[in-house]
Amino acid sequence: MSETRPASVQAVDGRRRNGTAKAGEGGVAPLRWVWLAAWPITAIFVLSNAATPLYVLWQRDIGFSKGTLTVVFAFYIVGLIGSLLVSGVVSDRLGRKPVLLPALVLALIACLIFATATSVAALIVARLLTGMAVGAVVSAGMAAVTDVAGPERRRIAALLASCAMVFGAGLGPFLAGVLSETMPAPTVTVFVVEATLLVTAVFAVLRMPIRSPLSPPKGAWVRVPAVPQGGGRELTLGIAVFAPGITATSFVLSLGPSLLSGLLGSTSRIIAGAMAFAMFLAATAMQFAVQHLHRRIILAAGAISTTASMIALVIAVHASSVPVLVASALLAGAGQGMGQLGGLSLLNSSVPPQRLAEANAALNVGGYVFAGVLPVSAGYLSDAVGLTDGATVFGVALMILAAIGGLVVLAGWRQVAERA
Question: Where is the Major facilitator superfamily (MFS) profile domain (predicted)?
């Protein structure tokens, strides 16, 4: 005997078939929507590093030192951390879309300022807005992927959100390097293309099958992001590996072109962009390779990879070896990728959905504080004592931090219950 289903169930089934079933409505969104939910993360992270190969042009046209260059980069961190103080809480209370759409608007404004920049101040404002957009997307965007995926696909959600971040971060400098070397008006063309990508991300967010939170958390709207009680150890383990990893890749992004110029005697933007792309491609590939491993193994391997990256960096600058420098970049990418995947996976498995955006924000605050302070210090130190000695001091310091992070993972794991 056939059974007549309620109209509400039939409606959910219809939305499931056409890809608009919302989380929490009794249906599971098709897998393609989990991938599409990750696209705004990729689009904004393309912008985050698109300026990297272009700094040599701005340095030539505007005129500023390596120290000033790292300060421009640091304002990105300032905007990002400032955004993280708000975006995670707002996303958990109002929903993902009310945070993601303004973030995409800020990113489009940053594209306009980058395309017309004629001063350091303009670059600083553009980087600040970029950081604000990135802060919103690493909290609300990554949580949106998990929401669309549903509770039974949290592990794949963490993988796709993390890979979207690192792939976009690598694609940005590669596209910028190629377009700026092969197309007219290099600092304009790059950001016109990026603005087009951001517009497609706006449409993806508007159509995203996700609903507003049913039971939003309480408390202050602006606060240092945190995890619910009992989740502190998971957050600590994630930061212990993610922070050194993202600091290593931030150094390559900010001072990598200067190192290549010193070692190769070349200012090719394609080479600089290709190295950054290879670094983040390694991060993406490594995350897919280790996705089924135990989270402790992923985090420990991330710490080892970052430590090895800094050893290679020190060797590269003293031996003037481009292959070793590239190896250092690849190891840095792998270290960030594994630290990021391990940290997000721990949070996805232990934090309830209504606090997940804030938890993601807390992980990124812990990582980006180091990523902002240490490369800036290395930039000014390099101006004072030379790029070789500055990079050596940075490499040794970060090597020690990465090793400590690995020890924290090994020592603290017994106190963390592994949850599916």
Answer: 1-420
Q: What is the pLDDT of residues 163-181, one digit of tens each?
A: 888 888 888 888 888 888 8
Cα dist from 121 to 46, 116, 130, 410, whole Å: 22, 12, 14, 45
Task: Specify the amino acid at residue 139.
Answer: S
CA distances (Å), origin 398, targets 92, 212, 311, 332: 34, 41, 10, 11
pLDDT tens-digit profile of 228-244? 776 678 888 889 999 99
| pTM for this predicted structure | 0.74
Tell me the domains of the chain and their CATH numbers. 29-209+230-415 (1.20.1250.20)
Token pair, residue 14, equals 């219809």
- Give the Cα separation of 410 and 206 in Å (integer): 43
Longest CA–CA separation in the chain, Å = 84
| b (16+ CB within 10 A) / e for 247-267 | bbbbbbbbbbbbbbbbbeeeb
